[in-house]
Specification:
globular, mainly beta, about 250 residues, 22 strands, six-stranded antiparallel beta sheet, about 5% helix
Amino acid sequence: MPAKLILSMDGAVMKEYPLNKERTTIGRKPHNDIVIDNLAVSSEHAAIVTILNDSFLEDLDSTNGLAVNGTPTKKHFLQNNDVIEIGKYKLKYLNDQPTQTSAAEFEKTMVLRAPVRVSQSEAFPKSPLDVTATRKTEAVISTQFNNTNSGIAPGSSGGPLPAALVQILNGPNSGKELELVKNLTTLGKPGVQVAVLARRPHGYFITHVEGGSFPTVNGSSIGEQPHQLKDHDLIELAGVKMEFYFKA
């Protein structure tokens, strides 16, 4: 069964929400997946990204913030029985499936660091794998989940999923390539626009995580739902153009 959230207030259970989407939003406005109609809750308060059996929570720059198990946080790798607190409301996370990554690995690799101020000479990273970024930085690409699965996941045709790469097409990092060997790869600029690229058994999918606008694939917005990538698709996010392709 998929992981789920149990919404309650003052100990009274209000509703149950299965985490059966790759991106679940929480907020006051009715377009959210989990709607909490209270002025203490921001219009788009938080999001939960779920990849395979792993879920991570992110505060979407909400006014009043959130806490997990009583500790204020901006990003958190969710574990079974964690309690998310938003104002007077609580969301208990239940997941009886084994996770693909540990909390320690998450803390080291999943947290997208906030933008930091650097000098003009340091404004562009030497490598697309650098995690230091400002709004002037052309691209930041950081691999996230350690792939703990052994072997190669089967493709939709029953055979092995072919290896894939993304190549940056513009800016000072033009020509740089990143092989997608992890379960999850984060692309973009923290604090500006971020997307996750998931390596699933039946293909590669890109999902919007952070930012006021959605990434585009071949010139079209991907929207809120996961978008499956095809060979030689052109991705653009945070002003960076890149090509997705399967390794020959």
